[in-house]
Recover the amino acids of this structure.
């Protein structure tokens, strides 16, 4: 069940973000109604747009779920981008090197390899946090850049042909794309990874609410000392939480690599999806089911925002202002929660006085 403030606060943040975007458009002489209409049509206007929006949701959901797991345990995992990259790299390498396997087995092995590689990459930060008290913020940031430069080196040295900056495409039998999904979405890049991401949101909800391990993760996040006093293995829980967090981000990279990109290329910067996933999770206070809706919103802004500059002279970067405004209002959600609490208390007091 959702608490009332858990629904109201994100809605206020989203509406406020759109209002700020509209005000800025008006200041610079752009039509906010036309631009928001173009954004909506670009994200949901036809089958192709819907397919692209849902496909773009896939890594957002998984990096957000990964961030949520770490946050529930009381840790700030900023390593989603690096773990996503490691998952992408691991899945593509396995798909290329073991292409003699049957298609269904090759997909399973490739996806698992990517998820596990992302999980192990994150577990390193968990190990240092558990046994040496090292800040996971520092270690995950460092691991992000180690992953980026190691993968760039590996692509150039082992995967790409001479002079190229990307690997060969994975075999068709390792692809997560399917004629069925392409047909119903007018040849979009929607793939089976979207359904896997939805399933993982349900799995993480179940993990938090119905399993002992999930309870221990939440307990450590609430009070590490009390959890240790209660007999929980805090060090083990820290590593498990970071491992699961990385598994999810790595899975996002694996699904994107096999379903969207079909290969891996040299990158000049870390993928933005890891940081976007943090915003997706923050908007709904790390609720796994809420992350589905939050990822849909952010995906619609990203995909639909591309249409703004197509149908008007408004730069598409205006969407970044809307997104940043939403994140800002999420950041001050405690102010909204305090106001909502005071309003509820005032209403309750008025009702009591009326009853007297």
């Amino acid at each position: 069940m959702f608490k009332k403030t858990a629904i109201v606060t994100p809605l206020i943040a989203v509406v406020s973000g759109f209002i700020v975007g509209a005000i800025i458009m008006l200041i610079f002489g752009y039509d906010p109604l036309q631009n928001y209409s173009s954004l909506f049509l670009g994200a949901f206007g036809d089958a192709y747009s819907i397919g692209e929006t849902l496909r773009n949701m896939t890594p957002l959901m998984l990096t957000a779920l990964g961030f949520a797991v770490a946050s529930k345990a009381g840790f700030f995992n900023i390593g989603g981008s690096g773990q996503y990259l490691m998952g992408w790299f691991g899945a593509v390498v396995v798909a290329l090197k073991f292409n003699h396997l049957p298609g269904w087995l090759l997909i399973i092995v490739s996806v698992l390899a990517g998820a596990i590689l992302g999980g192990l990459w994150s577990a390193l930060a968990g190990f240092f946090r558990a046994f040496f008290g090292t800040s996971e913020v520092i270690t995950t940031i460092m691991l992000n850049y180690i992953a980026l430069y190691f993968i760039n080196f590996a692509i150039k040295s082992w995967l790409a042909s001479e002079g190229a900056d990307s690997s060969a495409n994975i075999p068709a039998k390792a692809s997560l794309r399917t004629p069925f999904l392409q047909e119903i979405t007018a040849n979009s890049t929607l793939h089976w990874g979207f359904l896997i991401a939805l399933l993982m949101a349900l799995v993480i909800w179940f993990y938090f609410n119905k399993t002992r391990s999930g309870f221990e993760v939440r307990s450590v996040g609430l009070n590490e000392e009390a959890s240790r006093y209660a007999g929980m293995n805090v060090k083990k829980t820290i590593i498990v939480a970071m491992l699961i967090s990385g598994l999810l981000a790595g899975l996002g990279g694996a699904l994107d690599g096999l379903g969207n990109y079909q290969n891996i290329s040299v990158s000049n910067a870390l993928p933005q999806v890891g940081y976007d996933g943090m915003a997706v999770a923050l908007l709904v206070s790390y609720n796994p089911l809420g992350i589905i809706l939050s990822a849909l919103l952010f995906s619609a802004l990203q995909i639909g925002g591309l249409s703004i500059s197509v149908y008007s002279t408004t730069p598409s970067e205006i969407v970044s202002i809307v997104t940043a405004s939403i994140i800002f209002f999420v950041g001050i959600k405690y102010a909204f929660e305090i106001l909502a609490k005071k309003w509820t208390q005032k209403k309750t007091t008025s009702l009591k006085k009326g009853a007297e």
Remarks:
- Residues 129 and 159 are 34 Å apart (CA to CA).
- The mean pLDDT is 92.
- The two ends are 33 Å apart (CA to CA).
- The first helix runs from residue 4 to 27.
